[in-house]
Amino acid sequence: MKAITFAGLGLAALLVGAGAASAKTLVYCSEGSPENFTPAINTTGTSFDAARPVYNRLTEFKRGTTEVVPGLAESWDITDGGKTITFHLRKGVKFHSLKDFKPTRDFDADDVLWSIDRQWKPDHPYFKVSGGKHDYLNDMDMPTLLYSVEKTDDHTVVMKLKAPNVAILANLAMDFMAIGSKEYADFLLKKGTPEQFDQAPVGTGPFSFVAYQKDSVIRYKANKGYYGEKPLVDDLVFAITPDPTARYAKLKAGECHVNAYPRPADLAEMEKDPSLKVIHAPGLNVAYLAFNNLKPPFDKKEVRQALSMAIDRDAIIKDVYLGAGEKATTLIPPTMWSYDDKIADTPYDPEKAKAMLATAGVQTPLDIDLWYQPVSRPYNPNGKRIGEMMQSDLAKIGVNAKLVTYEWGEYRKRIQNGDDMTSQMGWTGDNGDPDNFFFLLGCPDGKPAGNNIPKWCNDEFNHLLEEARTIPDQAERAKLYQRMQEIEHDEAPSLLIAHSIVFESMRANVTGYKQSPLGTHAFEGVDVQ
Amino acid sequence: MFAYFLRRVALTIPTFLALMFLTFVAIRLVPGDPVEVRVGEHGISPERLAFFRHQLGLDQPLWKQFFDYVWKLLHGDFGVSLATQQKVLTEFLTLFPATLELAFFAMMFAVLVGVPAGAIAAVKRGSVFDQGLMTVSLFGYSMPIFWWGLLLIMFVSVKLGLLPVSGRIDLINYYFDQPTGFMTIDALLSDEPGAFLDALRHLVLPAIVLGTVPLGVIARMTRSSMLEVLNEDYVRTARAKGLSPGRVIGVHALRNALLPVVTVIGLSVSGLMAGAVLTETIFSWPGVGHWLIDSIGRRDYPALQGGVMLVSAVVILVNLIVDLIYGMIDPRISHGR
User: A25 contacts in B (CB within 8 Å)?
Assistant: First the structure.
């Protein structure tokens, strides 16, 4: 009997648990483990999110927007027709300390040069550290754009470009351009453990790194002397919770305050729960069906327009995106500056489509192939299902579409080479600049292995694309991008399908959280009431 | 005994070789190599693709890659994870204590509940308890772990709020060094009041979920083994000598009935490792199971190959120990004589 009582007491104690008072902590239930904490050598959003609290960049995206604002560079001058950018650096910015490293100097131009050269110069002592894959620097074409980066004094950095490109300011706000401490890097090199740079980061950001336990937790503490928007909590904790259902359960139970990537199926229930809140915004992405303009009959504008009219995108958004998608009318999503809301939607009109095909001299039945994406992507939840719905719509106007797919790497390679007739593809924006979307239809990318999947090349469009890169004034640039949207709408190089809608869920007592159109998560200015 | 030991150890060599080969081939059958899997819509230039493939040795013929891998393994080099650039062995040793701790508590749960339940069912054969237990153990044995784990989380943690949803410790209230990697031990060493109890609370649900399948097997095995033993002459003799029923069942019957149960426990270890993959994912448990799943997603060949070899080594080692114990507690086996 005694033993049973004892066991009963033990069980009761286990169930009741214990708690202790603590400083204000914000817990973010993140979806996975970072590969490391240096964005320059990473490609995943999970790793970027984990490094973001620690680092700053020369320019920053204003929280919750894609607007480029000053970061570690207080201001900049664009001269030489957009080919030279002179950055004036912020003074008095302190780097964080770690147990074994205490910075002796403030942030300066050497840190900027070090952070860029590490990715750019193969003879840099850190170039090969931690695998040396600098994917983003290459993806953003920086080696092609940059001519030189030099300092003229401790607080001035001059960046010279090979060709004018004002959109580079948005590249500099991206995670891969995070500025690290050269002093810390030198210290580790001397110690013989350079890879520690990527495991225990030292930056200037709103939170300093405390500890990472693999696959379990990342801890940060508030940087009280931060120059930017102040952190409102004392501690920030990333509780790594890979399963979305478990994340939802933790959110409901109050074990986390903000929850990464809720499952669409849980959203309705979340919205009904008064202790939670759900926010959403269009994702910075687009899904489209490219018509290979090099292959007849898709070299004819009327044929492309006809096929665009034959596909019922409303049905696709309802059945495949389950409401988490918004019909696309232009290549860029409506949250991006320069979006032209006057562009009319392409109507679903199979009868007119049939007539247009006949006018264009196309004999039906017409046999085409339709390539569908083999993997789900942020902008396309189910390529096969979308392919089947398109196939059935096209059959109604006498077009027999044969569904084709390959393994993802092979698929991408083949459509970039132009092996397809029509193919599903999409894009996720990197930096919120319209150039980062419209280059997809530029003539240089229309060559084999380029990202212009429809292989469409329009001289006026391409000229405007290049001109926009030389204009520092955003309003002026926006005018050019709006004209480009008109051309694109009229020419229909692709059928634009949808922009996905991104949801975020959190406890109702979380205040100040701003959803980023870039899909990133940031916690300065966020509080728990 | 020593010769038996050597023979058993020698038998593990072909197992290891086969495992090396299978893991090497299996991961390469999954489409997309570690370089391609990193590439999104941007694509990658053929030159960069070739450069990174060369850097990782993926441009070598498969047989050469395999022999390089075996050669390194024979020298105790498990390679470096492509994703994190950390040594595979270091990553494994960081994560393994979490898996071991969970597996230990799951097995404790399975044995401490399964053996008495099976024994009582056998003694009260045909009773409502017996039939109920057999039905429940069948359910336990065939329970899909993912569903069972989520059900418990939703009911016990979310609905009733009795236990934490996932993780190993309350991250808001406790933060201490973890020299051993075993949260219960580190919590005790930390001197933080309440930390040990909190670590135990976090273990309850995952241990139940992971222990459910072995619990079913152990309960059924104990029952059938007990039924056999209860009809033996020596049990009848013990009863005839006037020993108390508790002593007859506990000392004379159960001890002898446990022999096959020990084997089942040994065999369950491999099942525990397989179950750990799912349990760790549901409960955000930072162990090797979840790590291996991540490695498949990233096509992290060295992490996956090294991880599978290390997990297999643990399973083989446990089975070896069980075999040896079995030989010790039942001399009739006499190891080949």
Answer: 171-172
